[in-house]
């Protein structure tokens, strides 16, 4: 192995943020597991070309076809096995469909295998430490281009739950009331659909779910927990994360009571996040048709390899007809970054994620009396939104006048695509850890849209899948256009804007726009 030419894995160098200096050494004998992602055997370049047609006319493939025709090749997996053996690493799993090989070994062995520089403990600005490193990862030249990403060496917390609790809510609605206000299609409950939820901490108590849904006059939905990378359903360990988990389940179960729910629990690292999404997209047992994500972080806080791998997995989701809804963030147009610039949240900024922004929703007699951009100021939160500096303008947004980025003045992917009630002042009545409370944030909008999509899928008899091309083609049909308010640097206006996207849903009209039968309010 000595003298072998090594090549850097593109985008593998982490950004060491302010206040994250190295403060100590790691135990080189500690064993860790690392996920190695490999190149696909063929590109999924047809996904976008077929996405503009009605769901019944679009091409999708099965998960089995995805694995067979686009997964990693046996030769590439064998090459990684040989590489791991050369450095004393054990291959603990190899999944050709997910293009993922998991290797285990001591930190010292991992450092040698991937050319890790300056591994150590780094401090977090809010307290605590994480295992990190500086410099890019490298692999032998014959594996350059075969290995596209390596995750698990850096163990920093990658994302935050996009959740907000009000000091005292001005109004509080059940998910059923919100679905009624947004005219979700009638006669369907999401039956036959499975909705996946990604969670990076916390857990749920079945007794709380039984009490909550009984109070809504509904049966408790079927909820299954799936552990990824050692994650598990762990209620009581993190109150904020528990709030996220329960909010997600209770919103989906309230608006799509007939759908099955599968919760994928993973550690809050880039490895855990990416592996959880990959597991859900490729899950041939539970087969979710929708995946809801309410976690994220500023797009430039991710490594380029992580952004790339997440977007590749979202493209795989599109290929198999899975819609992935993602919260757009709760910290306005800066996304909570204090560098004086505007930032969008990731993975909401990924072109194949359905980015979900937030509104302030006021109801009178069950109908919408007012709906504006959610912006309660720095202390109360505001919907995320803006223009990506990492992803170009996608073709589906080419006709909606996405502005250039406020700082770079360059075009980019506009965030969000859609919106819904998120203001904690007009939040959702939920139950968490035995306590009834009100919660808001764009965390609520991702599961709200996931539940709506479960209903649309049942109504249409086919998954809507990668939805943006159809939504943008539909224009104002299917939406309540939000024209008042701002999220900081961006202002709402007629049509798409960088606060609430196309607007909040009119579910019945959206069903018609997608080719379904006329439907009324739920």
Question: Can you summarize this structure?
Answer:
The protein is an alpha/beta fold and 522 residues long.
Give your account of this protein's structure.
The protein is α/β, with parallel strands linked by helices. It is 24% helix and 24% strand. The protein has two domains: 146 residues, no CATH class; 354 residues, Rossmann fold (3-Layer(aba) Sandwich). The chain is built from twelve helices and 27 strands. Strands 12, 13, 14, 15, 17, 19, 20 and 23 form an eight-stranded mixed beta sheet that branches. It has a four-stranded antiparallel beta sheet with strand order 4-5-3-9, with helices on both faces. The protein has a three-stranded antiparallel beta sheet with strand order 2-6-7, with no helix packed on it. A hairpin with a 2-residue loop joins strand 24 and strand 25. Helix 5 packs across helix 7, helix 7 runs parallel beside helix 10 and helix 8 packs parallel to helix 9.
What are the key terms here?
12 helices; 27 strands; alpha/beta; 522 residues; single chain; 2 domains; 4-stranded antiparallel beta sheet
Please identify, by name, the CATH architecture of the largest domain: 3-Layer(aba) Sandwich
Q: How much of the residues is beta strand, in percent? A: 15-25%
How far apart are the termini?
A: 65 Å
The description of the largest β-sheet is:
8 strands, mixed
Q: Just give the CATH class of the largest domain.
A: Alpha Beta
CATH topology label of the largest domain: Rossmann fold
Helix fraction by DSSP (H/I, runs of at least 4): 10-25%
**Overall strand count:** 27
User: How big is the Rg?
Assistant: 22 Å
CATH superfamily of the largest domain: Peptidase S8/S53 domain
Count of domain modules: 2
* Count of runs of 4 or more consecutive helical residues: 12
Shape label: globular
